[in-house]
């Protein structure tokens, strides 16, 4: 859209540089909400109910790895530009 509005070819690095010169920093927006006391209590109950599980019980649980890997240049994450503080 910027290229069409300005009428010249602009690379993403140019836009990033101008935003940085305006003292704007690129960050991912905060997504997770803090746990409420009710959520904490429910998590504690979940853990306590499973504290007596043996190895056989835990072998039926699938744990998901939360690591993030990007093979290309685009990771489809939304970023916002804000001034520090």
Structural summary, described in words:
The chain has 85 residues and is mainly alpha-helical. Helix content is 39%, strand content 7%. It has four helices and two strands. A two-stranded antiparallel ribbon has the order 1-2. The chain is elongated and about 65 Å long. The two termini are 29 Å apart. The mean pLDDT is 80.
Q: How are the SSEs placed, and which strands pair?
A:
Elements: H1 2-6, H2 12-21, E1 25-27, H3 37-50, H4 55-58, E2 80-82
Antiparallel strand pairs: 1-2
In short:
Helix content is 39%, strand content 7%. By secondary structure, the protein is mainly α.
Q: Distance between the terminal alpha carbons, to the nearest Å? A: 29 Å
Tell me about the largest β-sheet: 2 strands, antiparallel
Task: Output mean pLDDT.
Answer: 80
Would you tell me the structural class of the helices and strands? mainly alpha
Shape: elongated
Radius of gyration: 22 Å
The helix fraction, in percent, is 25-40%
Q: Low-confidence segments, ≥5 residues, pLDDT <50?
A: none
What's the number of helices?
4
Strand order across the largest sheet:
1-2
Order of helices and strands: HHEHHE
**Based on DSSP secondary structure assignment, what is the total number of beta strands?**
2
The percent range for strand residues is 5-15%
Features:
RNaseH_sf; single chain; two-stranded antiparallel ribbon
